[in-house]
């Protein structure tokens, strides 16, 4: 018997070939995937700083206007023609300094007339007393009647009264003569002369105004919540106040509350408060706009960060906090006022945490960062003022000369002119 080899069958080897080809293809794909897998993202360079904590006092901000401690509308006490204006408009004057001179000649003549009247009254009194004395000597001898003696006594009393009246009239005329010299009633600064030489004036005429500005007052209206908070521990009088003018940065001037009104205005819910500041150098002018900060409460630790470290997300404020694994995490914060370029953080951060201060736009929560550490600056004048136990720099003077706000002429934009509150 002859055995034949079966012929080659494609149907038997095709499945095996397909399995082998599929295995090779899968192995090739795995090699390709391994080659093209992306590397981990590189760390983003940012600048970070440690959150600060400083002992500060609570405060409230208000606005007001400067007013002089005294303001006098100068009127003459006698009428007449102005003979001389004895001051320069806007000059500083001392109490008692001559400002206007009214023609004194009519009053000098009146003084002379009344002096003569007084002398005549003295002579008449002397005669009446002499007659009275003679009558008293003659009366026991019945050389004069009782009626005549009484009449002479009455004449002496009348002469005494006439003398006193003439002396009073003379004293009044002498005062009027003195009042022709119109003098400064207080130390201060005089306005312009409203009446010039040659004009006729009366006691109703305003000659000029004098402001007593050795101390300056700032009146402002405090809301009732602030008032209650600051008076919770005692009277509001004596509370420390910092002030800045419209062209100054910060609040370089220091004063104190010396008056609080006796009622809250029910229509506005505010109460009128007055703060007093020294103005011996005359740099404050009544009527100027002023910003004031009313300090109060006990010192407490306050978290501070730089404004540039704060981002905005749909109206919310946030910071990026550096994590131990080198990434950054999102943290919502509640902000307060700005102090010397630093922002008060009311909630959301704790002292000692580290946050991104530069490069906030290049990273997001979860990003790995390459952190370069810097320090936040926290030695401004307001921080020193707020932290001081007595609310003053050493010596009771402003801790630095008043800093003027930059203007466009100085090369600064208007956005640099004001410190905003979050």
UniProtKB/TrEMBL annotation:
<dbReference type="InterPro" id="IPR058624">
    <property type="entry name" value="MdtA-like_HH"/>
</dbReference>
<dbReference type="InterPro" id="IPR058627">
    <property type="entry name" value="MdtA-like_C"/>
</dbReference>
<dbReference type="InterPro" id="IPR058625">
    <property type="entry name" value="MdtA-like_BSH"/>
</dbReference>
<dbReference type="Pfam" id="PF25917">
    <property type="entry name" value="BSH_RND"/>
</dbReference>
<comment type="similarity">
    <text>Belongs to the membrane fusion protein (MFP) (TC 8.A.1) family.</text>
</comment>
<dbReference type="GO" id="GO:0022857">
    <property type="term" value="F:transmembrane transporter activity"/>
</dbReference>
<dbReference type="InterPro" id="IPR006143">
    <property type="entry name" value="RND_pump_MFP"/>
</dbReference>
<feature type="domain" description="Multidrug resistance protein MdtA-like alpha-helical hairpin">
    <location>
        <begin position="112"/>
        <end position="180"/>
    </location>
</feature>
<dbReference type="InterPro" id="IPR058626">
    <property type="entry name" value="MdtA-like_b-barrel"/>
</dbReference>
<keyword id="KW-0732">Signal</keyword>
<feature type="domain" description="Multidrug resistance protein MdtA-like beta-barrel">
    <location>
        <begin position="246"/>
        <end position="294"/>
    </location>
</feature>
<dbReference type="Pfam" id="PF25876">
    <property type="entry name" value="HH_MFP_RND"/>
</dbReference>
<feature type="domain" description="Multidrug resistance protein MdtA-like C-terminal permuted SH3">
    <location>
        <begin position="303"/>
        <end position="362"/>
    </location>
</feature>
<keyword id="KW-0175">Coiled coil</keyword>
<feature type="coiled-coil region">
    <location>
        <begin position="111"/>
        <end position="138"/>
    </location>
</feature>
<feature type="signal peptide">
    <location>
        <begin position="1"/>
        <end position="27"/>
    </location>
</feature>
<protein>
    <submittedName>
        <fullName>Multidrug efflux system membrane fusion protein</fullName>
    </submittedName>
</protein>
<dbReference type="Pfam" id="PF25967">
    <property type="entry name" value="RND-MFP_C"/>
</dbReference>
<dbReference type="GO" id="GO:0046677">
    <property type="term" value="P:response to antibiotic"/>
</dbReference>
<dbReference type="Pfam" id="PF25944">
    <property type="entry name" value="Beta-barrel_RND"/>
</dbReference>
<dbReference type="GO" id="GO:0005886">
    <property type="term" value="C:plasma membrane"/>
</dbReference>
<feature type="domain" description="Multidrug resistance protein MdtA-like barrel-sandwich hybrid">
    <location>
        <begin position="72"/>
        <end position="210"/>
    </location>
</feature>
<feature type="region of interest" description="Disordered">
    <location>
        <begin position="387"/>
        <end position="422"/>
    </location>
</feature>
